[in-house]
Amino acid sequence: MERQLPSITIQGTSFMVDVMKGALIETGNPGNVILFKEMDYKGDCYLFDYDPYAKNLPGIGSSGFIDVRVLPMAVLDPEGMALKYGKRPDEIIGKTDFEIMIDQDLYQRRLSGHLPVIEIMGHPFYVDVRMDSLRPKDDFSTPGIRYSEIDNYAHPDDQRYWIPYHPPSHSIREIDAGAITEIPKDIFLVEIPTLEKLDPVGYARYHGFDIAQTVMANPIERNMAAKIVDWKETALPDCIKENLLKQTKNKLQNTPKKTIRRNRGHRM
C-alpha cells in the first residue's frame, strides 16, 4: 500500500511533503513544485519567498511575495527521511536535515583540508577551487582543466560541462568544427559537473557563501567519476557531414575541365 504523504498549508494552499523528491507539491496540482534545495536552509527551518498568486517562488512577472518558513523535512516527515536515507526511525529523532542528508565523514574530511577527487577516464583529478581547475594527480606537465577556459562548453542546464578531453595530456583539446572530417580517435567528450557540485565546501569558502546552505544544495559525493558522452549527442556528426560535402564540392570545382575536340574528318 502506498504511503500517504504528510501535508502543510501555505497561505491557504495545501502542499504535500514529498521527501523522496525533496519538494513541496501542491495538492491536486502535481505540476506545481517547490524544491527544498531552492530554499535557504537555516538548520531549524527553511526560508523562502512565496508568491501567493503563482503559489510558488517569485518569477519574473511576480507582483509581490511574502516570507515563508517551513520546518525541516526530518520534522515534517521523519518516516520518509528514514526510508530515503536508509535509517531507522529512531535515528532520525533529534537530527537535523543536514546531519541526515549529508555524509558526515566526507564533510569532516573536507573541512580538515582533503580535496575532493573526480576520476576522468581512469585518472584521478583533484578539485581545486582556488586554482579554478581540476589538477591531474602526479602530472605536473599540465595545469589540467581550468574552468575559466571551458565556458564555451557549458551545458544548457548550467549544471555541467561537456568538454573535448585528450587522455594522454590530461587536458582539453580544441576541435575545429569547421574543418573536422571524422570523429576524433584520441579525443573524447566527457561530462564534468560545475565546481560548486564537485566541491561545495571549497566553493562556499572561496566565494563567502554559507557552507551548510551550499552543501545542502550540492551534497558531497563519494567516488565521483566523469561520464563519457557519445559524440552522436552533439552537433559534431552534422559538422563532419557538412565539411565532407564542402570538401567534395571544392574538389569538383578545382578539377580541370577536359576539352573535347571534334574530328572534322576529310573533305571530299
Topology:
Elements: E1 7-10, E2 13-18, E3 23-26, E4 33-35, E5 40-41, E6 46-50, E7 66-70, H1 73-76, H2 78-84, H3 89-92, H4 97-101, H5 104-111, E8 117-120, E9 123-128, E10 133-136, E11 145-146, E12 160-166, E13 171-172, E14 188-193, H6 195-198, H7 200-207, H8 211-217, E15 224-225, E16 227-229, H9 236-254
Parallel strand pairs: 8-15
Antiparallel strand pairs: 1-2, 2-3, 3-4, 5-6, 6-7, 8-9, 9-10, 10-11, 12-13, 12-14, 14-16
Helix pairs in contact: 7-8
Number of helices: 9
Helix content: 10-25%
How are the strands of the largest sheet arranged?
A: 11-10-9-8-15
Order of helices and strands: EEEEEEEHHHHHEEEEEEEHHHEEH
Walkthrough of the structure:
The chain is built from nine helices and 16 strands. With 268 residues, it is α+β, with helices and mostly antiparallel strands. Strand 2 and strand 3 form a beta hairpin. The mean pLDDT is 92. The protein has helices at residues 73-76, 78-84, 89-92, 97-101, 104-111, 195-198, 200-207, 211-217, 236-254; strands at residues 7-10, 13-18, 23-26, 33-35, 40-41, 46-50, 66-70, 117-120, 123-128, 133-136, 145-146, 160-166, 171-172, 188-193, 224-225, 227-229. Helix 7 (200-207) packs across helix 8. Helices cover 25% and strands 24% of the residues. The protein is globular and about 85 Å long. The strands form four sheets. Strands 11-10-9-8-15 form a five-stranded mixed sheet, with no helix packed on it. A four-stranded antiparallel sheet has the order 1-2-3-4, with no helix packed on it.
Short description:
The protein has 268 residues and is α+β, with helices and mostly antiparallel strands. It has helices at residues 73-76, 78-84, 89-92, 97-101, 104-111, 195-198, 200-207, 211-217, 236-254, and strands at 7-10, 13-18, 23-26, 33-35, 40-41, 46-50, 66-70, 117-120, 123-128, 133-136, 145-146, 160-166, 171-172, 188-193, 224-225, 227-229.
